Amino acid sequence: MFRGGFAHSLDDKGRVIIPQKFRLLLGEKFMITKGVDKCLWVFTEEEFRKLEDRLSAQPMLDSNVIVLQRFFSGEAVDATTDSQGRVALPSNLREFAMIDKEVMIIGAVNRIEIWGKQRWDEKSAAMTDELISESAREIGIG
After folding, report:
1. Separation CA 86–CA 63 (nearest Å)
2. Do residues 105 and 113 lie in contact, with contact meaning Cβ atoms separated by under 8 Å?
3. Is residue 65 within 8 Å of residue 59, measured between CB atoms?
4. Residue 86: strand pairing partners
5. What is the pLDDT of residues 16-31, one digit of tens each?
6. pLDDT score of 142 more than 90
7. Is 31 helix (H, G, I), strand (E, B) or coil?
8. In DSSP terms, which residues pair with 30 in a beta bridge?
9. Each residue of 114-132: pLDDT tens digit?
10. Strand, helix or coil at 127?
11. Helix and strand tally (H, E) in the chain?
């Protein structure tokens, strides 16, 4: 399970350090793709395979399935970290997530999310007690 948040900077080559505690859970190879709310989602290979398996089990011509397959797989990349724990974020994914220099890397249970710091600060500020309570009730844990 991925937990915690870490502030980092993107280097001149578009690389960011993945915190060691996350690297240990990710394994050698992992997947980076677009995420909801204009962030990047980072999955272990196993978790990404589960997502793809769920999508491929759906009716192939269902327009909702097509949208999700394109969104999650269309620009997904296989990734590894270098010897210093950095991962290169492709320019198309950085642009999608509005990542320029300052980055927030947060644990989100079964995945990591990579955010542009300003975007994360805005999203985090919008998570009011009311929204959190309502969301918890909606999924049956509140």
Report:
1. 37
2. yes
3. yes
4. 17
5. 999 999 999 999 999 9
6. no
7. strand
8. 44, 79
9. 999 999 999 999 999 999 9
10. coil
11. 6, 8
